[in-house]
Design brief:
This protein is of the alpha/beta class. The chain folds into two domains: 292 residues, Thiolase/Chalcone synthase (Peroxisomal Thiolase, Chain A, domain 1, 3-Layer(aba) Sandwich); 98 residues, no CATH class. Helices cover 42% and strands 15% of the residues. The strands form two sheets. A nine-stranded mixed β-sheet has the order 3-2-4-7-1-8-11-10-9, with helices on both faces. A two-stranded antiparallel ribbon has the order 5-6. Strand 10 and strand 11 form a beta hairpin. Helix 4 packs across helix 18, helix 5 packs parallel to helix 8 and helix 6 packs parallel to helix 9. The longest helix is centred in the middle third of the chain and has 22 residues.
Length: 469
């Protein structure tokens, strides 16, 4: 396999882009990525396009990459469409890497774009159902009852609320809603119910409504919160430790011009924010957002031809894997731990040699869990590891210097490539005030979907800083 290098990266600002479509966002990031690489679009020999929701939200279910890239003059070349839930962006990069590593192409593009914002909130959350086994949605929904709070959980939550009474921000108003707003909400729910009813059957939708459609968040938040509560019981992890992780990431994002949230959220404020699914408060959870990101990869030959070795980041490992079925308390290492071991083996390094990481923190607990999976601390000590200050920008193992999904944002098809943008920027020493000192090796973990007890898909990438020669 040939060495593969990242020579161009770009990300749009993440957030609410109501006046921009997928084509606009794609053009913005590809133009930026090509400029960063110092090449023209004619140099791209193949492209992989990542997107999850364009079909469901706007009807563009097929040929998404061809439709998105043709307006900017990228056509005729092989364009492959990638959908792997939240791991779509990193999956696109994996295949672009594979195309170059195999010798089939010299220059390839991985690009991801997503628009999640919608005035119909019911449609947003219903869209997350696509990330599970939809044919077994009723069985899965019934199984979600295991994620409900038991009596001990409720006692812990009540004690938490007494200690940290909500500050009132983000609460739904109990009165004063306009008739127009109420009618719109009912209409939105009916639109979603009819759409799902045609796909799944109206009997299925009726049963689903009790668990899913009545919620104000995706079912994945309940899965994360259940895992967090189990961790708290088994290892003594605290809600305060989760809040510290979230607050750290909100701080990091204030230094990132592309982040969706660019304001500090002190730990106390994280704890007093609205509970989404205990112990997770709103400030601990990734927001809905729009955005795009890309990476241009090439062979060593092209790096030499272009004379860009001082900015070319080497991909030491690119690993893509899928989840497996096993019992909840079987003791099996989960997908994150399994793939991390493979990535370290391929790269010929270990966790102690990493200088930073970008991980899939759809919630603050996600960062804690992946810190353990990546071997940065022993199992069960993720909370204490964060509490020690190790994961801060000036710590021994900075995690999510970009602000992570929790604060940088999470436009699904672009998130994995935004991680690569951050690590590449860091390894080039171009991250400004959030720059990690002496960074040489970095790892990215990006997971997507839920199938059984773990993510359905996941990618790991280990990157190496440019040569000084």
């Amino acid at each position: 396999m040939d060495d593969v290098y990242i020579i161009g990266v770009h990300t749009t600002p993440f957030g609410k882009h109501l006046n921009l479509g997928i084509k606009d966002l794609t053009a913005m990031t590809v133009t930026g990525g090509l400029a960063d690489a110092g090449i023209g679009k004619e140099a791209i020999q193949a492209a992989w396009f990542s997107n999850s929701g364009w079909g469901d939200q706007r009807g563009q279910a097929c040929i998404r990459g061809q439709v998105a890239l043709r307006p900017m003059g990228i056509d005729t070349i092989p364009i492959t469409n990638v959908e792997n839930a939240c791991a779509s962006g990193s999956t696109a990069l994996h295949h672009a890497w594979m195309g170059v590593a195999s010798g089939l192409y010299d220059v390839a593009l991985a690009v991801g774009a997503e628009k999640l914002y919608s005035s119909n909130k019911a449609a947003i959350f219903a869209g997350f159902l696509a990330g599970i086994d939809i044919e077994n949605v009723i069985e899965i929904s019934r199984g979600l009852s295991v994620f409900s709070l038991d009596e001990e959980d409720r006692r812990i939550m009540e004690a938490f609320l007494r200690k940290y009474p909500p500050n009132g921000n983000g609460k739904k108003a109990k009165g004063g809603r306009s008739i127009k707003a109420s009618v719109k909400e009912i209409r939105d729910q009916l639109v979603v119910a009819i759409s799902l009813g045609e796909k799944l059957g109206y009997g299925t939708v009726k049963e689903l409504r009790k668990l899913t459609m009545a919620a104000d968040h995706s079912p994945f938040m309940d899965i994360y919160s259940y895992a967090a509560r189990k961790h708290m019981r088994k290892y003594g992890t605290t809600v305060e430790q989760l809040a510290l992780i979230a607050s750290k990431n909100h701080h990091n994002s204030t230094l990132n011009a592309n982040a969706q949230y660019r304001f500090e959220v002190p730990m106390e404020k994280v704890l007093r924010d609205r509970i989404v699914s205990f112990p997770l408060t709103r400030a601990m959870c990734a927001p809905i957002g729009d955005g795009a990101a890309c990476a241009v990869v090439c062979s060593r030959k092209i790096v030499r031809q272009l004379g860009v070795s001082s900015r070319a980041v080497r991909i030491r490992a690119s690993i893509l894997g899928s989840g497996k079925a096993y019992g909840e308390d079987s003791g099996e290492p989960d997908i994150g731990e399994r793939l991390a071991r493979r990535a370290y083996e391929v790269a010929g390094v270990g966790p102690a040699e990493m200088h930073m990481a970008e991980v899939h923190d759809a919630t603050a607990f996600g960062e804690l869990h992946q810190a353990e999976n990546l071997g940065f601390c022993p199992r069960g000590e993720g909370g204490r590891f964060a509490e020690s200050g190790a994961t801060r920008l000036d710590g021994s193992m900075p995690i999510n210097p970009s602000g992570g999904l929790t604060s940088r944002g999470h436009p699904i098809g672009a998130s994995g490539l935004a991680q690569i943008h951050e690590l590449t920027t860091q390894l080039r020493r171009e991250a400004g005030k959030r720059q990690i000192a002496k960074a040489v090796l970095a790892i990215a973990e990006n997971g997507g979907g839920a199938l059984g007890n773990e993510e359905a898909a996941m990618c790991m990438h280990i990157l190496e800083a440019p040569s000084k020669s």
